Amino acid sequence: AIEEKHMSTSWSALGVPERIVAGLLARDITSPFPVQAATLPDALQGHDICGKAPTGSGKTLAFGIALALKVEKSKPGRPQGLVLVPTRELAAQVAKEVSMLCSGSDIRVAAVYGGAGYGPQVKAARAASIVVATPGRLEDLIKRRDLDLGAVAVAVIDEADRMADMGFMPAVKRIMRAVSKNRQTLLFSATLDGDVDALIKEFQNSPKRHHIAAAENAGEIDHLFWNVGREDRTRMVAEIATHYERAIVFCRTKHGSDRLAKNLDSMGMTTCVIHGNRSQAQREKALEQFRRGKATVMVATDVAARGIHIDAVPVVIHFDLPEDPKDYIHRSGRTGRAGQKGVVISLIDKSMRRSTGQLTKGMKFEVNYVDPDFEAIVVPTKPVRPGEIGTVKALALSRA
Q1: How far is CA 134 from the centre of its chain?
Q2: What are phi and psi of 63, to 5 degrees?
Q3: What is the pLDDT of residue 383?
Q4: Which of 25, 36, 223, 270 is the most buried (most CB within 10 A)?
Q5: Residue 151 predicted with pLDDT over 80
């Protein structure tokens, strides 16, 4: 597919009605990003969409607007809109975004995911016209006969490559086979080969293909590799977080995440933690604390590398580098979202240089190992106030 560059257009020109445009403008989302400008016209005309789009490109808004405009109020337990996502956090965030787009209508949206009680989710899902779900919990509700997907008119498969990586593809196929054959399918993925290509061939009908160029959407990201000894890493994280006023820090293990957060707290930082041993309620509380500025440092394992969407994160820190290049890219994608600038700082001991070179081989940036230099990096011109987090243009970055 041809890479699609930025298209100068307006929401109204794409066919978005005034009630939704007004809501977007109220959130300072004044014009569409390329993935929205490219896919919305085809989606609103009823075509299947196959979108190759990087994380942070704005695809949630693209398919969310399509759902809000094409789905009608449903009968109990028979939703007309379905969104499949790989993680609990993403399910909750996508549901929140789509709910805002449906504001003022009688369309209800529910999030369905594991790690939480069935009762409230079943009640919400049966009353919803749009269900945002992780595959495992959705299959449970189908087996329990709480939901019937036979009336689904618009199905969205989001982050299809991530679901393939996590082993969810068999469940995704079973779910899609339970969906009405007379449906529209919108698929978004960072890659379109292998299992994702098989998914496209089986479940999409002559899809309109759109390849969104990463450079146009992901903002400007500086990848820095700082020489920092292992014994100095915690102090350096505190200095970076203080300099930027908020940061996401990735560790390799759950225990390491807890230990780092405890050490940062003892240094006067305010932290929150996300990893696999945290309950869903604890994860949601941590996300909310970080969004609202009550915690300035989020410490996380790779469970958050693709499962969270928070705009206006100025810096991502790799306290421990991941083993997989994909995880490096997805961790780093928590900054520089929706056209903003961002910085990724990896803390590298000299003994790590060989493995770092292997990890970053083939990536589209130069790896230079330098001593920490706060004068040479971008910093926010002003702090982000609570209430601005999550808006598209809330954070302006410039050279210090």
Answers
A1: 14
A2: -75, -25
A3: 40
A4: 36
A5: yes
Q: What is the mean pLDDT of residues 5-26?
A: 82
In angstroms, the CA 73 to CA 102 distance is 11
DSSP 14-57: GT--HHHHHHHHHTT--S--HHHHHHHHHHHTT--EEEE--TTS
Q: What is the DSSP letter of 376?
A: G
Decide: residue 201, CB within 10 A, 0-12 exposed, 13-18 middle, 19+ buried: exposed
The tokens for 314 are: 């100025």
- Is the pTM for the entire model greater than 0.90? no
Number of other residues whose CB lies within 10 A of the CB of residue 100: 17
| Spatial separation of the C-alpha atoms in residues 348 and 318, rounded to whole Å | 9
Q: What pLDDT band is residue 226 in, cutting at 50, 70 and 90?
A: very high
Per-residue tokens: 50: 């196959």
pLDDT in tens, 45-67: 999 999 988 766 788 999 999 99
Structure tokens at 248: 């996401």
Q: Which helix (H) or strand (E) holds 209?
A: strand 208-212
